[in-house]
Target: Un-named sa1614
Amino acid sequence: MPECVSVSEFVQEVQEDWSSPTTSSFTSKMISCRNTVYLLEEALDSDRLVLQKMKKAAKAKYTSGQEHVSHLEQYINSMEKLSVNCHSNGETEVGSAFCRLADFSKELVSPMKNLVSARSMTSQRSKVRTAVLEKKGTKDLKKPFERAWRDYESRFKQVEKEKRELARQYGMVRSEVSGGEIAEELEKERRSFQLSMCEYLIKVNEIKTKRGVDLLQNLIKHYHSHNNFLQECVSTTQRLKQYMEELNGVLTTVKQRREEEKRQLCALRDQLRPVVHTEQDSLPKQVYSMHQLLGDKQYGTERTGFLYKKSDGLRKMWQKRKCSVHNCYLTIAHATPNKPPTRLNLLTCQVKPSVEDKKCFDLISHNRTYHFLAEDEAECVAWISVLSNSKQEALSVALDGGRRGGGGGESSVEDLTRAITDDIRRMPGNNSCCDCGAPDPGWLSTNLGILTCIECSGIHREMGVHVSRIQSLSLDSLGTSDLLLARNVGNSGFNEILEANLLSPSLKPSQHSHMAERKDFIMSKYQDIHFVRRSHSSAAAMRLGLQEATKSCDIYSLIHLYAQRTELSQPLHTHIQEKGETALHLAVLLADRTSLHILDFLAQNCSNVDMQTSAGNTALHYSCLHNKSDCVKLLLRARANPHIKNELGETALDVSRRLKHSQCEELLQQAQSNQFDHHVHVEYEWRLRHDDLYDSDDDFDDKVAMETEIGTFLVLFVYFHQPRGTSSRRVQALYDCQADHHDELSFSEGQVLVVLGQEDSDWWHGYIEDEPDQRGLFPSSFVQLLSD
Model:
């Protein structure tokens, strides 16, 4: 390590040199002085970097402290509002508790504000000290020092050369010149060097004082503030602890009172429910019926002729239209010859004769009711019979697994299956694999209702059919029953439950991940259920939740219960017909064309599909008792045992024969002879999104007129309700935008939008200039302002 000099040594050497330049040894110490300056500069550079980091940390502490105080104040404000609401609702005890806790929180916020203020002072002083090092550092003083050193060396060499030249003239040879000999001649340069060195050491002394002593004194003040903060918090928390002990007793009393009220209400509900359900079961369902109208077979399955159809527009006019029934499709011609006719798949419709007029009948699709009028009653009966027969024949073909002859067209069941599959692919999250995010997944888990890629589907198969039942959307011959859950669940909704506690999206494998990584994640997700948010409810609460989810047709609540290992086959709290009914029995009793997916999920995922009531009836018995053939299909598809007998010694087939429920009987006979097709078609309200709403010119004209009137009204409304003195901004779309929610606006690139207001800096509210009825929220980054 180079030799250095201390401040005291430097002062002593300079004083000796000042008193006696010729005898002083300062000249020999000048190299050490120079080394000292270099080492000090390196140390100060290191300190400068450390203090810069301290400054950033102090600033971050101050900012986070301010944000924390702001959040606490918002939290306190919310508690105070909640207290006011509770007092208004008559919940005095609860409201008082919220008010007291808000007061305690205020007492804790006050010392926090003082502490944040102390942080601010520390941060400011840290900035000053860092600025001293950065702007008034020693670099400017080092330059004069270096210049003085160079001047001294240059002058020393010049004098040394002159002395040697003089000695040579006198015939002498000098090897070196001592400092004492030339001390007087180099005194000016030496004094300049000493002055620069002295000023440099003075500045270093000041910096060390600010870096060390001053900084520590400020930190002492800061930690005094910390100490005061903690003492005030301890005092407040001691009083808070006493109040919490008192509050705990009050809340226990309130909770007991609420539980008693709930118990009384539940008892009253159980007393009223059987009567209400009995009355509901006795009433015929007008729209969604599990049983199809049977037509007169003599009229066949095909027909062509004219019917009067009532328009759904403003005028409600009867319009004569040419109609034809062929291959389970009803074709309705338009008045305009070059306009393609409307085709309705009868598998998604129901025929209903009119009660008021014997010449009228209705055809009910998932999104519209068509009203038809025939020439006379006999003509009406013929059309109703043909429509019913055509639909029944298509169902029979689907059950037999065959294909209809004639016409050369594809089966209507296949058309429907393809339409449902296309609709499933468009559901949220279904454009990527449920497990790894790979695009365009083509494999379906029929019992979970999710889509996966081919790699992840292989791991699903390894887990077994009791966990996931995999089918290909394109390679396997699927029936509509295979698509029930996929149409009602989807990847997004499923992952919101099964991945609710996934700490980070990075823990999820990607499409490029190795199979071992995929397998570990999928096993943890489906078998170990690691990422599900647990409710920590009691077994009784879980059982009650299972009953309520089945009644309300809440598929996501059922999935959440299933993911928490709830036993889906356990008897429910209450029953409708017989004691010991399970959720599967309840789903059969409540089943219609809108709730079959609930029955399907329970049947495929419960541990025992053959659970019996106190009278020995299984869910299959219930389906036959109530003539619900679609329920029979789903239960047989889930491997329900048709040979189980009830207390009367009857199997489900015996019940069907006794009650003359022919469709149920036929299905059970197929199952007993191993001819039942598990990819069966079911009657369900699919709610597909591609059907035409307006199939006649008059309907379309009425629609256009109505939209024009509404659009004119909206333009006038916007104009007259716009604040005076302001003008709406016009913007142009830079990109296509597809709405994700009902309150958002869809538009195409290049369209002009009118801005009515803004939710925040990122989302604006407005409408399309040419379509004022199209209004909603849209991202401001997708548009640019137009200069009017």
Summary: The domain at 7-256 is CATH 1.20.1270.60 (Substrate Binding Domain Of Dnak; Chain:A; Domain 2). Residues 735 and 749 are 5 Å apart (CA to CA). The chain is about 55% helix and 10% strand. The longest helix spans residues 187-282.
